[in-house]
Amino acid sequence: MQTLKIIIADDHPLFRGALVQTLQAMAADVAIIECGEFSAALKAADEHPDADLMLLDLAMPGVSGFSGLMTLRAQFAALPVVIVSATDDSGTVRRSLELGASGFIPKSSGLDDIRNAVKTVLDGDVFVPGNDSGKAEDDPVLVEILDRLKTLTPQQNRVLTMLAEGLLNKQIAYELGVSEATIKAHVSAILLKLNVDSRTQAVIKLGKINMAMVA
């Protein structure tokens, strides 16, 4: 039987441990990769292209709100990402699914619910919590922002995330290993796609998507 490989990205060791025990009971051969911060999650996704699934907490070191989900969907399109979060209001669930999550598991879920959610996604379906309809975002302003964010390329998405962290062009260029001129070109493209005039306005638009999130 083929090994089931799952990446768990959550900064709470006790919760990660509970997830590990829950998932190991699902199959005879389960490999778990644990990550306590977002940079480790990115590295794990890169080093394990055969991973079947990633469970991602929205609030963890190195990431803010939906930025982590956006980055993963942009860089690792083939990897299903399921959000596991203590913030489970309808808006957060909807936005997660709109931005490409394959499912959403509230941290308050029971063990059987977690196993059912993971099985649903592994079977190729999208899992929506029982108390949420999973309907599309109905705020027209947010719908427009979400649609525009989806047009960003993987590199543009990474640049926008770094802009939101307050990094300067030269710092982003260093982190990504490209020239500052390349970053300026990416920023110009981001502004055009988001229909804004400045990087500050671009960060504000991203912030509107994250407003429902709490640490």
Largest sheet data:
5 strands, parallel
Q: Which parts are unreliable, with pLDDT below 50 for 5 consecutive residues or more?
A: none
| Rg (C-alpha, Å) | 17 Å
User: In percent, how much strand structure appears in the residues?
Assistant: 5-15%
Walk me through what this model shows:
This protein has 215 residues and is of the alpha/beta class. The chain is 50% helix and 12% strand. The protein is built from ten helices and five strands, in the order βαβαβαβαβαααααα. Strands 2-1-3-4-5 form a five-stranded parallel sheet, sandwiched between helices. Helix 1 links the parallel strand 1 and strand 2. Helix 7 packs across helix 10. The longest helix has 15 residues. The model has no long low-confidence stretch (mean pLDDT 87).
Question: Care to give the gist of this entry?
Answer:
It is built from ten helices and five strands, in the order βαβαβαβαβαααααα.
